[in-house]
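hey so i finally got around to running the thing on that chain from the lab meeting. sorry it took forever, my laptop kept dying and i had to restart like 3 times. anyway pasting the input first so we r on the same page abt which one it is
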Amino acid sequence: MTTQPAHQEAVPWRLQIAVYGIGLFSTTMFYMAAVVVPLWVASLESSPFLVGMVLGSRHLLPLFLSIHGGALMDRLGGRRVMVFFAIVGVIIPLLFPIMPWIWAVLVLQMIAGLADSMGWLGAQTLIGQYMRGSTIYTGRLSFTCRFGHLLAPPVIGWVWDALGSTWAFVGLSVWGFGILVCGLMLPAADKETASGGNTTEMKRPATVGVRDLLPRMADYVDAFRLLSIPAIALVVMASMLSHVGSSVHSSFYVVYLGGKGFTGTEIGLLLSASSIAAAFGALATNWLARRIKPYWLIMGTILSGVLAVAVTPLLGLFSLLVIASAVRGGANGMSQPMIISSVLRAAGSSMQGKAAGIRGTMNRVASIAAPVFMGGLAEFVGIESSFFVVGAIATMLMGALVVHVIRSPDLTASNQIRAGDAARN
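ok and heres what got predicted. didnt touch it at all, straight out
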């Protein structure tokens, strides 16, 4: 995380659009499926337990295979991996209507979840491979993704209502085709950035065999070894705290507000306020990154986002909830690009896929564990008090990370503003 030259090779807009498009289409696929798949499962005869398994299964394969996917991108190149999973993402939605069985839906959900998570993982890795992990590009990536989250779910819901379930799944397939187009726009030869900022061609195997596609224990060992790098361990831990706040915001936050009499429309508007603020927060990241040291910016924005959710029981007025939701979204929008950039830079050019994979894996652990922990906590202290307890725990943990940075010579040395983020384009 040392200072880079301010004048670096510009990144072509065609390449930028391809990477941002992969991020947009892949992350939005999750939100569209969150509308269509529950409606589809509700139309099938199944037990509540199986319904829960189906809806949660989308996270299962990414939990175990994010590191493998990142390793494939390091080994085979981002373009190959993106095109492959894009094709999977186009085909899988079309199989739902012709396989109307709950166990088939369970399997299809797992595969679809892996495909769209690989798209997001790939977008991050490509930012590192082609754009030096600069916050100006990660900020643009995060900004672009937010618009899909706002617009696509209502559109696919309208397709379901107006045209029926089959056309809704066709719509998912068409959306997945966008990932394929963007993947094909990527250069055939992958690049790596040398320490001086010069971009060179990476050597990839000409042919890919079955053994190249199988998970390797060595890749997982290498990925977890990245946590021995102080900068990566710090940012990954901070990122996990961010996902604790996001998980609470998407689960008990909604449950609590519904119990307090807020309508579905009002809750939807609160979530929209968060998404809009996140988009503009992402655009502000590069400006802030040139003025505030990276670790302080990451930890300050993450803690602000978590606390904006934790104070929810104190905010009885809708207007105050809107402000708090916007603060949470803006903080999340600013922290995400910084987290991505920091991890990619610390990992080095040959390990960026694995670095994105280990971050994704740990984030999913936090996302799964946080609602369970808060649910158990609510059983003992009540749902209102559980918000405060989560906020207090997050504050103490973040305080411990701040002390750790101050006391660690390695982290203090790497906590430097990067002039290279003022790069062109």
